[in-house]
Design goal:
With 71 residues, the chain is mainly alpha-helical. It contains two helices and no strands. The two termini are 23 Å apart.
Length: 71
């Protein structure tokens, strides 16, 4: 009776969190694009850029450490 157990890497869950946070930050940055806050350098639209970077990194982590991938 041999059981074949598959362990899901913690980095997959890190990738999921980065992806979810990135998408949320990206869309919140898009909603404030037309009415930026009254802060210094608000014209750079940092939430859009950081959200996109987090979403790309999260997607990469999810792809690299996906469950069921052959070692």
């Amino acid at each position: 009776m041999t059981e074949n157990r598959h362990i899901i890497p913690v980095w997959f869950f890190v990738g999921v969190l980065l992806l979810v946070y990135g998408v949320l930050i990206f869309f919140s940055g898009l909603t404030e694009w037309s009415h930026p806050p009254e802060t210094v350098l608000s014209e750079l639209h940092a939430p859009v850029w950081w959200g996109a970077i987090l979403a790309v990194l999260g997607s990469a982590y999810c792809w690299i450490f996906r469950p069921g991938k052959n070692a």
